[in-house]
Give the backbone structure.
Amino acid sequence: MTVPPVPSNSAVLAIKRKLFGSREHVRPVDTDDKKNVTVHNKNFAEEQSKFLEVVQFLIEKEVDVKAPSLVFIAAGLGYVEVLKYLLDNGADVNTVNEKNQTLVYVAASFGHLNVVEYLFFKGVDVKSPATDGVTPVFEAAARGHLDVVKYLVEKMSEADFQQVAKDGCMVFHYAARGGHLEVVKYLNEKGGSATVANELGETPILLAAEGGHTDVVQYLFEHGGNVNLPANDGKTPVWAAAQNGYLTTMKFLVDKGADVQLVVKPKSKKKEDQTWAGATTILVAAFDGHLDVVEYLANKNVDVNAPADDGWTPVFAAANGGHLKVIEYLVKQKNADVNVTVKSGNYDGAPAGATPVYTASHFGYLDIVKFLVEEGKADVNINKAGRTPLKAAQGHPDLKAYLIQHGAK
């Protein structure tokens, strides 16, 4: 699941820079810090006034304000007075962009409650989905705009609130993935399920763990989240945290009973769900170069030589990803095998029969090859299905010369 982009975002920022320079865009706020709020809101009012002058000038010059770009920019910047002026001069309040996103959608994405309220008053459907099935409340939840989420939920029926986008996710999944604790709490109180999985089998706690949002993970665990429930592709919350290097999140999950010894066992037979079949947490952490996670898992006695179904091991994964420090730790501290060969290859630099030296040679990682050969005593002539490091080093003359000097044929 990915947070869908707002197509008008680049235009909004470009217009803002043109008018106001590099100063961070501001929007009205309401907090207990009255002094800063006054300054903040004054800046917003000044910016809106300048933008309105530009729009008025364009209309005087008979520029067509019915074109959707201006109203989308006004909605994205939160300039409700500009929006009113444009609508009074013929702009369409129900206009949509090429992805069927409405003005409410754009305003919700940027957190402009004032614009959302105004557009609702003007009769715009706040439940209208974009082409991908995402509605304004999804966007607001994904980006953490609690005030907008509350307003929209109040205007929706329970059926609308619990709807599923085309990616199989509900609003709750978007908030959890984004790490927005207050939004997650609110949605849970409103009946959103902390345990329901999306169509990929991903639960909110898995999505939060994937992003390293420990506070959200803790809240979801306290409200029934299962720390060991796998998605369709076999990934669990602790595995997802390991993949992205979130050690703090991992430690919390392990403390609550997550299994760090798990091996990915896809529940689905789909090809896209088989990518990490048989992989351990330490393998995926090694692949992405998360040394602190690798050390933690190794000290939890996760097998540093356990192969995935395709024969990849942590050392091979680290070599493929170019992570020398991880390889040094695995070999020096944990005596990991440097001469493993993969069984099947569907990844760049990792054909069937490839070794760590082979995959490092393919990518030109001379420092890794040197360590594997000199410190790890790796064999530079392992030949499985013709997969020799020397052949892999084509295009890397320095590395090729090094291999020849060390007996490669």
Notes: Residues 1-164 form a domain with the Serine Threonine Protein Phosphatase 5, Tetratricopeptide repeat fold (CATH 1.25.40.20).
